[in-house]
Design a protein that fits this description.
With 605 residues, the chain is α+β, with helices and mostly antiparallel strands. The protein contains 21 helices and 19 strands.
Length: 605
């Protein structure tokens, strides 16, 4: 793909995604003139670029949709459900064409605009209300239904007006269909528009005008990753230099050494300040609003709900919340699995929903917000909810857990993340094969995140994902146990308490009363496999079921540059880092802490 076409595809895809969002908004507010005008402008912009790139099918779809919205915004045609449906189908067709181009498809190999889509758009323009929905045609059906001599007949008619003899067209007209390669007919109106766009772009007026100022540039993501790593290492080096300088300050310097120490101190302070600013600026270049990801889901929900015969609205909030680009890129598949799960498992059928007091139209909420140094993403449905006892029975029957596990409802809800677990007896095209939700948990934990479930039978289910806002630098609390230096994500730390020599016991488990509530105590060192040590410091962990982990000491807090573990997998450890003193630090996994510092052994089926 050449640079000009690549630039067009990137910008047009952004417009197409915005169009989908506007159209779904228009379903709820048909009189919103701002949205009508925004959709019209988007299709007009895409059409102009597509015409310049000779993408005739895209031009045709955009031209008819532009005509439709011109009629809608001027009041010539009403904003009806069929008009919205036609625009959504056109938007989907344009998005598919752009996606194919971005995946390397040659422009000449793109499909033509389906005749059913053209008919649907024309019916919507004329204000018809009984238009049939588009039936997806296979390539064989499309080829069989298309007139074989359309191009030849068009050429004969065109030539007859100017006196030329169309020998090739005559030959095609008398040749049996399918014998010769097909020639795609060019719509004269589209061709005229394409020529007009090219002529206007090549005109002297445009050539003589001053070039527009570039507000942004596109940079290879790999270059940003390298820049961020260098910035992080520079901060780490500055921190280590500051520690060394502090140790040097314990000595007395006389004569010429005293002013040198003063100058060194000022220089290191300035270097530290600039390296921190460099790191902050570099991080900002990697931050993206999750809305860029969320905008891809309305069409998915609309089409999947249609396939399942369910009436569902997707509500999106917090789209402006920013998170690391790598996190945004990695969240698409997990969120697709979660939304499909909500649609297929969570939302009841129309018949089941009619027997409840719930509204006939179901609702799925996709929400994002920032909480301290984490970004929270929530997927909530108002469906049937989860039955904890049924989940336990299903997992036991499949041999995934023993009868002594998953005693609480919260633990039972987490069973849906086990590989091979599904409550469906028969697999469908949407779900039921026992894959998907385990992929979600794996993808979230790969980026040092955690996922939790809350559900109420008959009311609905909520999935909450917690992820670091940025991946490479994490605020941590440094602790020490059995001689090892460990780091805990600050997002899970509530407070530090002093532990007594003896504890109360509940069910054989040591507990300590904190703010009036008995919290179980777990030795971090022993859970991770270290030798037993004298642990007199406790850290209250903010988990769904709060508890206290015991350590030898707390060495303070630090923003660490995390290096993920790639060659080995160690339960409870997500990566490594260097402290300001240069010591190797093991970083404890966020999900491990939220799950109660438990290393669970899974039973094979």
């Amino acid at each position: 793909m050449d640079d000009m076409l690549k630039e067009f595809v990137v910008e047009a895809l952004d417009l197409a995604i915005n169009v989908e969002e506007h159209l779904l908004s228009l379903q709820r507010n048909p009189e919103d003139m701002n949205t009508l005008n925004a959709v019209f402008r988007s299709f007009h912009t895409i059409k102009g670029g597509a015409g310049f790139m000779n993408l005739s099918a895209m031009v045709s779809a955009c031209h008819l949709t532009e005509n439709l919205f011109d009629a809608l915004r001027t009041g010539k045609s009403p904003v009806t459900p069929i008009a919205i449906e036609a625009a959504l189908e056109a938007s989907g067709f344009v998005s598919d064409q752009l996606t194919a181009l971005s995946n390397g498809t040659d422009p000449d190999q793109l499909s033509t605009m389906p005749a059913a889509l053209e008919q649907l758009l024309n019916d919507a323009i004329e204000g018809k209300v009984g238009a049939a929905p588009i039936k997806k045609e296979s390539k064989v059906e499309a080829a069989a239904s298309a007139p074989a001599t359309t191009a030849a007949n068009t050429e004969i008619l065109a030539a007859s007006t100017n006196g030329d003899v169309p020998w090739e067209a005559y030959y095609r007209a008398v040749t049996p269909p399918g014998t010769l390669p097909e020639v795609t007919a060019v719509n004269p109106v589209i061709k005229q528009e394409q020529e007009a766009v090219k002529t206007s772009l090549a005109s002297n007026d445009i050539k003589q005008s001053a070039p527009a100022k570039e507000e942004s540039i596109r940079i290879d993501a790999v270059k940003l990753d390298v820049l961020l790593e260098v910035a992080g290492e520079s901060v780490q080096a500055a921190n280590q230099a500051a520690v060394l300088l502090e140790k040097l300050g314990q000595f007395s310097f006389d004569g010429d050494a005293a002013p040198l120490m003063t100058a060194l101190t000022e220089t290191l302070n300035r270097a530290s300040r600039y390296s921190t600013e460099l790191q902050r600026a570099t991080l900002a270049t990697r931050m993206q609003p999750v809305g860029r990801l969320f905008q891809k889901f309305p069409r998915l929900i609309r089409e999947l709900a249609k396939d399942l015969g369910k009436d569902v609205d997707l509500e999106i909030s917090g789209a402006e919340t920013e998170v690391d680009r790598v996190v945004v890129d990695s969240l698409y598949d997990p969120l697709v699995h979660m939304l499909r799960n909500s649609l297929d498992h969570g939302i009841e059928s129309a018949e089941e929903r009619a027997q409840t007091t719930k509204p006939a139209r179901a609702k799925i909420l996709l929400k994002a917000w920032q909480e301290a140094s984490s970004v929270m993403i929530e997927v909530t449905d108002d469906g049937k909810g989860m039955d904890a006892s049924r989940l336990r029975e299903k997992a036991i029957s499949k041999g995934l857990i023993s009868t002594h596990e998953a005693k609480t409802d919260d633990e039972a809800f987490q069973l849906v993340f086990l590989p091979g677990f599904s409550t469906k007896e028969v697999a469908s095209s949407v779900s039921g094969r026992g894959v998907g939700m385990d992929v979600v948990k794996t993808a979230v934990e790969r980026h040092r995140g955690a996922i939790r479930i809350s559900s109420h039978l008959g009311k609905g289910t909520t999935f909450i994902i917690r992820l670091p806002i940025e991946l490479s630098i994490v605020p941590t609390m440094l602790v020490r146990t059995a001689g090892a230096s460990l780091a805990l994500p600050m997002s899970t730390v509530q407070r530090v308490v002093e532990l007594p020599e003896t504890f109360e016991s509940v069910g054989g488990q040591p507990v300590l009363r904190d703010l009036g509530r008995p919290l179980p105590i777990r030795s971090l060192g022993q859970v991770l496999g270290y030798e037993k040590s004298t642990e007199r410091v406790g850290i209250v962990i903010a988990a769904p079921n709060p508890y206290i982990i015991s350590v030898d000491s707390v060495d303070g807090t630090s923003d660490l540059v995390i290096k993920p573990l790639t060659c080995i997998s160690t339960p409870g450890i997500t990566g490594t880092a260097r402290s300001a003193e240069g010591e190797l630090v093991l970083v404890i996994s966020l999900s491990f802490l939220l799950d109660g510092c438990k290393v669970v052994e899974r039973h094979s089926a």
